[in-house]
Amino acid sequence: MPASTTKKYRPETRLVHGGTLRSQFGETSEALYLTQGYVYESSLQAERRFKNEEPGYQYSRFSNPTVTMFEQRMALLEGAEAARATATGMAAVNTALMGQLRAGDHVVASKQLFGSCRYIVEEHLPRYGVSSTLVDGTDLDQWKKAVTKNTKTFFLESPTNPNLEVLDIKAIAQIAHDAGATLVVDNVFSTPLFQQPLELGADCVVYSATKHIDGQGRCLGGVILGSEKFILDNVQTLIRQTGPSLSPFNAWVLLKGLETLVVRVQKQTDNAAAVAVALAEHPKVTRLIYPGRPDHPQADIIRRQMKGGSNLVAFEIKGGKAGAFKFQDALKIVKISNNLGDAKSLITHPATTTHQRLTPEARAELGITDGMVRLSCGLEHSDDLVEDLLDALKAV
Ligand SMILES: *Cc1c(COP(=O)(O)O)cnc(C)c1O
Questions:
Q1: Looking at ligand 1, which atom is closest to the CA of residue 220?
Q2: Which terminus of the chain, N or C, has fewer Cβ atoms within 10 Å?
Q3: pLDDT per residue over 140-162, tens digit each?
C-alpha cells in the first residue's frame, strides 16, 4: 500500500500495511530481498540509475526493497517525511550527529544519556574537533546557558535511562531553534507510540529498533527520521558512503515486529503499571519512579507530551548493592539482562553494569544509587510478574 494511501489510517493500521511493496507474485507477507546488488536491463539503464535520472536500486549499502519497506513503515508511524535505517541504534545516533557536525561546531546534550550516546558526545566527537557541553536536561536554564555561537545541535533522550526522568522536548526545541541549532531526540524509552518528538519541535528522531520495535530479542537495528531536507542534507550520503546500513534480513524481522508493536507495548505498559502499584508502597522499596504515576517528578510534562507511561520501572531496593543483588538473584521469571523492550521481563542493576564506567560522583549526580534497579516489563501475565517480584523482595 503506497504511503500516500496509508497516511489517512490510524497507527495500528499503518503498522500492518504501511510501506508494503508487493512483488509480481502477490505475496501476503513482506518479501525478504536478500541481495547485495541489482542487475540492469541495459548499459544505458545502469548509467541513468547512477546519474539519478531514473529511480531504482543499485546496491544494498545504499538501499534495498526490504529495508525501504521498514523505512517507509517507520516514517508513516512517526509522521516523518523521510527515514533511513541503520545497523544498530548507535549507528543511528552517530550518523544523525556526525552528519550535521564539522570541526569547530559545538553540541549541547543532556547528561542523562544512554552510556554509548554519552561516549559519542563526551569522547568521540571531541576527537574530530567538535566540543560539547553536558547539562542537567531537566533544567531549561542550563540548556540556554550552554549555547555558544558555534552550537549546531542539541541531543537528548526522554524518558532517560535508567532513572526515567522526563525532559520538556517542546521547550528545549524552542531554545535550540532560538540559537539556530537543531534538536535530535533519542525516543527509545517512550517508543514511537507514546511520544512524537517531531510534533513537539524536534528536527530528528532516532531509535534503537533493537528494543521495542523488534521486541523479541532477535536482532539489532536503528532508524533516523526527519524532514526530507534533514535526511538529504545530513544522513543520506553519509550512510551511502560510510556503510552503517541495515541488513535486509534484520529489516524484515523489524518489519514483522512493527506489525505487533501496539499490542506488545500496550500489554508491557499495563504490566509496568501493575508492578508500580504493587511495589510503590512496599517496605523494602525505598523509591520508585514510573512515568505513568501522578507522583513522578515531571508528571505535568508527561501529561502534556506523552500518550502513555512506559514499560520501564526504576526502583531502589533497601540495603544498597547487597539488597539489589539478593533481590535480582531471587527472581525466577524476570531475567537479569541489560537489554529492554523484550517479550521477556528483564532487570538491570545500572551501577554495576550499564553505568559502571562512570565515576561514583557522576552516578550520584544522575541519581543512580547502589540499590537502584531498572525493570523492563515483558509480556508475561501481570499476576505472575508481580508475584515473582514480591517473592524476591522476601529474600532481601
Ligand atoms: C539501546 C539503546 C541505544 C543503542 O541501541 P543499539 O541498537 O544497542 O545500538 C541508544 N539509545 C537508547 C536510549 C537505548 O536504549
A1: 7
A2: N
A3: 999 999 999 999 999 999 999 99
